[in-house]
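Good morning C.,

I know you're traveling, so I'll keep this short. The sequence:
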Amino acid sequence: MSLISLDLPAGVYRNGTDLQSAGRWHDSNLVRWHDNTLRPIGGWRTRSDTASAGKIRGLHAWIDNSSDRWITAGSYNKLYVYTASGIQHDITPTGLTVGNESALNPIGYGNSYYGQEYYGIARQEATTITPATTWAMDSWGQYMVACSTSDGKIYEWQLATGTIAAPVTNAPVGNRSILVTEERFLMALGSGGNPRLVKWSDREDNTSWTPAATNEAGSLELQTSGRIQCGVRVQNQSLILTDTDAHVATYSGPPYVYGIERVGTSCGIVAAQAVAVVDIGAIWMGSRTFYTYSGGAVTEVHCDVADYVFSDINLSQISKVCAVANANFGEIWWFYPSGNSNENDRYVVFNYNDGTWAIGTIARTSGVDSGVYRQPIIASAGNNKLYEHEIGFNYDGGEPFAESGPISIGDGENVMSVTKMIPDEKTQGDVDATFKTRFYPNDTERTYGPYSMSNPTSLRFTGRQVRVRIEGVNADDWRVGVNRLEVVAGGRR
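The tokens, ready to paste straight into the viewer:
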């Protein structure tokens, strides 16, 4: 008789084969690892009972000079503002160009070159996909500025709930995105229909865009084959991301004002909302992996679940991917559409403090971290409402769980019989355990349980390898540490 500790490293590993995840967690949903223990994420509740007219693909939160808090949200056809109490106001600009709630992917006859790919195989390169409409939003002092990818104009809203957002005077049109720099310039990215052109207003004056000896307005064109997707402030610099590379705009003062240099190649971002900025820098999703910039040069982030994420993602709707920071837990969440879904239905989480990953299922379209508000606020893909996250333990029917990869309990020739489990649990009975055994890596899997955890828990099964599934059964802040199995030799097989 001996004890086997189920001491699995934090985070999910989902690359390669099933056996390559041996001794690691292989699957998860609605859980995280914090302080070396497995626990559920916080739940959510509605922030506003009023739904938007379409999927929200742009959120921004800020505090005005009177300490009032606001949230603005944009859909393919509307722009809203929410008060701190959750009251929604329609501030859609007059004449806003209505965009696309979903990406448009021409797949009919004649939409690619004859003879490309084998018959019956989906084309890898078809005609250009028109992406879903997203919004870029920022604060200009106490006011809000915004730009829709389908409309291209820059709008400003000046806090009066009875008025709508209005175009910024003299601002360029045909823009892809906007950014307010640390030096208080308003940048128009992909300006005038040129996907590589960056324009900026005079400092502190977003109505002055024509360069002159008496101002600091100007423009530069990126030397790149890519198209600008977005820009963010990071490490006192302005990071501009295209679909192929990354550039940094650095303030140098008159007469040139800004200089732009490339800081990364083959590191393009997959969608305009797929980047988040935290204390360590900017982190974004690329076409097959993730990247980070914290000054100097872009570096790749090793991803333990890249195979899982990128082998089952709907590339035609990848423009909907959005990133949301959750700095209280050192996390960045990406919500994305799985291969069989046209809307964001899954998430992947990177814990940048310990370098671990988690996966799961939540349908969300855009969000902002805590700061202005006590909790992260994220928009639902299901009912187009805003939700506060990390509140209680309600998951709308979702099930928190973590399942391991195979754990060896035999010695090669002999199999082992498991008779007991000694749980390591904060509160007895908050979780159930299920065991799945095999004698060989591709053998039929046999399932035992679920077992309500007691101290000890009586078990009876035999195998060479076992995987364990921990499921939360109580709406509580449960904790699971290092469980142990009591095993005895079971003979050869």
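Safe travels,
E.
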